[in-house]
Amino acid sequence: MAIYTIEKNERICEAAEIYRLTFKAPDITAKASAGQIIHIVCGGDANSLRRPISICECDGDSVIICFEVRGAGTRELAARGAGDTIDVIGPYGKGFPILSGKVALVGGGIGIYPLISAAKAVKAAGGEPVALLGFRNKELMNMTDTFDNYCDKVMIATDDGSYGHHGFVTAILEQYLDENPDASVFVCGPRGMMAAVSKISLEKGNECYVSMEERMGCGVGACLACVCKTQFVGNEGKGEKYTRVCVDGPVFNAKEVIWE
Amino acid sequence: MIKELDLSVKIAGVEFKNPIVTASGTCGFGEEYKEFYHPSFLGAIAVKGLTPAPKAGNPPPRIAEVPSGMLNSIGLQNPGVDKFIEVELPRLKNEGATVIANIAGSTVEDYCYMAERLDVTNVDMLEMNISCPNVKEGGVAFGTDPKMVEEITSAVRAKTTKPLIVKLSPNVTDITATARAAERAGADALSLINTLLGMKIDIKTRRPILHNNVGGMSGEAVFPIAVRMVWQVRNAVSLPIIGMGGIATADQAIEMMLAGADAIAVGACMFKNPSAPVEILEGIKKYMTDNGIEKVTQITGGVIPW
Question: Could you tell me which CATH number the domain at A102-211 has?
Fold first, then answer.
């Protein structure tokens, strides 16, 4: 647990209260891997739980996170500025694998951010990251230029057709996987979209990794609140169990996840 | 001038090096919080609630935040008492921890089975979570009826010579009645309070946040209730008390001890401040120094009621 100083906190979308917050934390950047989570105290005394937020990107000694204002906690966090402090624990959890082949980074809405650090890691490993990002409309698009920096190609889908492909990101994923049958898939976004992307990827025989989200308690693996259902193969055969998202995830091989 | 502070407390013959316990269900088996404190730093660790067989737990969501508190309904996900005895207990004991095994069952037989299994181990104490539904009595929690409390405590008492703590439920009209029942039946100590049953609904979806619809409330919002109940129980029985419920600071820990607690447990507050046990102990030491208190046991029951 440590207190860090915020370097910058700026709103990055006019149509939604989405912020990009940067704070200096060399001890976090030294050990963070793509897709891991940090837990932030926000919202004052009445908020009894930290807010789990995926790291968007590490830039030198600085950690960048992006978040949307959803309640009292994130509203208070949005009000902080350069020079203010931030109480953070982490990073925790298992992130995305560092692959050196073709990787389709499929993101939806505010789920796109952890894919930025994944894109960076894949690129650094000599891989070919391609971003497939879905938004409700053109106005809600954000951070796509950052994907441009690390990805060989960025494809956009909007629900209303106001930009890019008209429809869901799953349509452009199917086409991409047909053209690149050896590609792996990383996905983060709304639950329904992640389930659809997993299904498509696995049916086509592509490796797929999903970043799961659940309501969290301790964030360190002790309280067993943030579980998702997974299947396992053990000595006693196959079975199902509840697995902690905070430390055993948030990224899981899609083959393990049971969607219900 | 005080030369050395004596922080140790004795609960049912077991020496705790300090009065800080971590509450069952909030600290797993002590591994996860090692970045913040070692299990041997604590007076004692009350481990995750154990059941006779491994338990999968409830479907998520299992947690909901409420003002100054939280609701949980984990559903006792745990590896089972045998795995605990085989893996977690030896590790914790090797690490020098004082270990309280929390046991939770659906029947009197479940509790008895676990007490018998644990009786032959080097676990330091047993804690009975009696807020579980009694499946043979239509799912009414054991801990809500003094008669059931007496019956189940007597049954478990007969199976073990280990110090036996009964963890009282606050979801009762008169907590002194269940406290007296546990004392009559041979409990060595009491811990209180367990969580208060609560509910939170998402007004957009009209669904309760918790998949189990209802869950146990903890956190700072329950603290005054816990203090009141500890004070009432202190005046009703002579057993040692581990006081818990919403303690997040040293001031609150001291308040709980003044109300009558011999030791205190922290739980939900660690989710926001994982270093709380360390900070609380530091704060207690400062209070003792500032107030010329040599032994931490001198704080217990020190409230001066009107």
Answer: 3.40.50.80
Catalytic residue list contains B269: no
Joined together, the tokens standing for residue B63 give 């947690």
Query: Given an 8 Å threshold on Cβ–Cβ distance, is B271 in contact with A217?
Result: yes
Task: Identify the band that residue A1 occupies on the pLDDT scale cut at 50, 70 and 90.
Answer: low
Residue B1: pLDDT above 60? no
Contact B59 A224 (CB under 8 A): no
Question: How many CB atoms within 10 Å of residue A53?
Answer: 22
The reply to whether omega before B59 is within 30° of 0 (cis) is no
Mean pLDDT calculated for residue range B52-62:
96
pLDDT the model gives residue B98:
98
Mean predicted confidence (pLDDT) in A37-44:
95
Instruction: Choose, out of A28, A38, A87, A227, the residue to mutate when testing the contact with B (most B CBs < 10 Å).
Output: A227
Closest of A154, A152, A136 to residue A144, by C-alpha: A154
Residue-wise pLDDT for A64-108, tens only, equals 999 999 999 999 999 999 999 999 999 999 999 999 999 999 999
From chain B, pick out residues whose CB is under 8 angstroms from the CB of A88: none
Q: Which of B35, B65, B274 sits opposite A48 (nearest CB)?
A: B65
Q: Does A49 touch chain B (CB under 8 A)?
A: yes
Considering chain B, what is the average pLDDT of its residues? 96
Helix H segments across chain B?
A: 81-83, 89-94, 108-119, 146-157, 175-184, 223-236, 250-259, 269-272, 276-290
Checking if the pLDDT of A235 tops 80, the result is no
Residue of A222, A225, A226 with shortest CB distance to B33: A222
| Chain B residue whose CA is closest to A216 | B63
> How much is the pTM?
0.95
Given this model, what pLDDT does residue A175 score? 96
- B268/A contact by beta carbon, under 8 A: yes
Of B132, B130, B195, B161, the C-alpha closest to B12 is B161
Using the Cβ of A15 and the Cβ atoms of chain B, whether some distance falls under 8 Å is answered with no
Q: How far is the alpha carbon of A178 from chain B, nearest alpha carbon, in Å?
A: 35
> What ipTM does this complex have?
0.94
Residues, chain B = 306
Residue B64 with chain A: CB contacts under 8 Å: 215
Predicted pLDDT of residue A260 = 81
Q: Does position B106 have pLDDT exceeding 80, yes or no?
A: yes
CB neighbours of A118 closer than 8 A, spacing ≥ 6? A34, A35, A95, A96, A103, A105, A129, A186
**Where are chain A's structural domains?**
2-92, 102-211, 216-252+256-260
What average pLDDT does range B143-167 have in this prediction? 97
* CATH placement of domain A2-92: 2.40.30.10
Does residue A191 belong to the interface with chain B, where contact is any CB pair within 8 Å?
no
Domains and CATH numbers, chain B: 9-298 (3.20.20.70)
A189 with A134: CB under 8 angstroms? yes
Residue-level pLDDT at B133: 77
Residues from chain B that touch A226, judged by Cβ atoms under 8 A, are 60, 62-63
